[in-house]
Specification:
Blueprint (H helix, E strand, L loop, with lengths): L13 H18 L1 H6 L8 E8 L5 E10 L2 E9 L8 H17 L3 E7 L4 H6 L3 E6 L8 E7 L2
Parallel strand pairs: 3-4
Antiparallel strand pairs: 1-2, 2-3, 4-6, 5-6
Length: 151
């Protein structure tokens, strides 16, 4: 039972959020030798990784936005304009990001999330494996987490 000595609040507070993140990070470092071994190394920080495909006029035809952290590439977004789909541009963007992550940043694996109506089949064809499926996230949709070994 929670003591009546606490006042509960629900407002968004950036300063408290940073405080909480800092304390959780301290607790995680104390509990995990693996995370402690990353402390102070280049692998400790999330580093943005972006790959863009521009058409002849300089407009974005497709792109990939992600980051690398602790020998992993995390693909957050991969999008190809409808007029350019089916020509291999998505595969090229993903391959380029994986190559950069592996060769320039020492990444050993990649991960991403996608919904059932987006591209799970596309990622499986690129060598990714479904490691998690969350039904009804959001309701009526399944979210998949996929991973791939890069080296």
């Amino acid at each position: 039972m929670v003591s009546r000595m606490f006042r509960m609040e629900t407002e968004v507070d950036k300063e408290r959020s940073q405080f909480l993140r800092s304390r959780l990070r301290e607790a995680n470092l104390a509990a995990s030798p693996k995370l402690r071994s990353l402390h102070g190394t280049p692998g400790e920080r999330e580093v943005p990784l972006q790959v863009w495909a521009l058409d002849a006029g300089g407009s974005v035809a497709g792109g990939l936005v992600g980051h690398t952290w602790a020998t992993w590439l995390h693909v957050a977004y991969l999008w190809v304009d409808g007029g350019h789909r089916g020509a291999g541009l998505g595969s090229h963007l993903l391959s380029r990001a994986e190559h950069l992550a592996a060769t320039s940043r020492g990444c050993l694996a990649s991960r991403l999330e996608t919904w059932d109506f987006q591209a799970p089949g596309f990622y499986v064809k690129q060598g990714y494996e479904v490691v998690c499926a969350i039904p009804d996230y959001p309701p009526g949709i399944t979210e998949y987490t996929l991973t791939k070994r890069l080296l």
